[in-house]
Amino acid sequence: MTISAPRDRVEELTVGGGARLEELVDRESLAQLAASFADLSGVGVRVFDAEGKLLADAALAVELMSYLMTLRQAKSAVESTVSSVKNLDPGPVGQASMDGVSGGRYRVVALEHDGRRVGRLVFGPYFPPSLRDIPSTLIELEPNLDLDRARGLLTLAPRVTDDAMDRMAKHARATLDVVMFSGLRALLTGSMHLAAVRESYRELQSKQEKLQVAYDRLKELDRLKSNFLATVSHELRTPLTSIIGYSEMLLEGIAGEIVGEQREFVTTIREKGEQLLGLIKGLLDLSKLESGTMSLRKATMEVAPLVRDVAQTMAPHAKKKGISLHVALEPALPALWADAERLRQVLLNLVENAIKFTPASGSVTISARAAAMAAAGGGGEDGGLVLLGAQRAAVQFRVADTGIGIPESERQRVFDAFYQVDSSSTREQGGTGLGLSIVKRLVEGHEGTVHVEANAPQGTVFVVTIPLKRATLRP
Fold it and tell me: pTM score, two decimals?
């Protein structure tokens, strides 16, 4: 992107300097003005800039001059006069005249703007009314001159008095002054606008470069964070596994019988060790998902046994909290092409969360049914039904609870790593905020979708939709 009219050009214009005639008045407008002057006076008009470049030409045919251009000596003299007129200095008064060999006269009028000469008007050739015959200088210069013909053409030449030409010159200068003033205003407005655009673009470019540097830095920090989590988690898991193993051996009495508070303490060590091991596994899973090193081992799998296994696994936990756990399966569910272990991890995370945030005497329901989703993988809500675009068969899992619910403003953010709706130091429920982030990444690894559905007035419904893909429908 290139923007003209740099800042120094704008500053030059605002102090009244540097504006060229063709910047103040465009060539088309100059041509129209020159033509109107020529029509008004009957005399040809040309407009030159300060460097002598022709900007507008409204010359009128003068038959006498056309005839002289056919004669060798006369043509040379006429061309010499025209060249001299083009370079004629109007002088301090801003006007000058020159007579040609034909007796024709040229008037040069300076065009000024803010004390600077930006160009000149050249009127002519015109002939004074006092000229009655062909000048003797022309007769002597051109031996082939047809005097009778020349005299006849002289009577047809435009006649203008010097007073009339003075008035014409004054009128032309006044008209162009007004036009140039209006042009300067438009030029300043346009130049300042372009300068503002240039400055805005420069600032935008600078901000974009800074954002790119910040993005690259954050990307590198994110990579370092993932590597750190993976390394630390791996190094922690080895001694922690030993702690859990030795605590289990103590509980089994391998090192001697333990009783009373000893058993209680060792049991606590094992439970907290397993809890910590779960967190470490979550960190390892997250780092693998972020780095793209986790592979999914997909195969044909049945949906109903998976859901029942998840419910059976979580049943003791739900019973301990006084929560009823229900399963609702649609008959003849199609098989899925998926990683059964990772899909089980998804459902376990969702059910564990549902139980955690549901008070006693509440309920959690796991359901599965056939559905459809967009071919691009972006199924909508309400069962994944898509009104527009291609569809593909899918299975939809729903985990609904009657717990505290998730505010609408938080429903998208709960899938961010380490994010928790209640992040205060006094929150009732623990956890690192990794579970739902892992769920989302695993679901997306299956080209599926996950979202939180509204469940007024209370409770939460997580909806996971997984496409069948290569699976075969059951008869």
Answer: 0.47
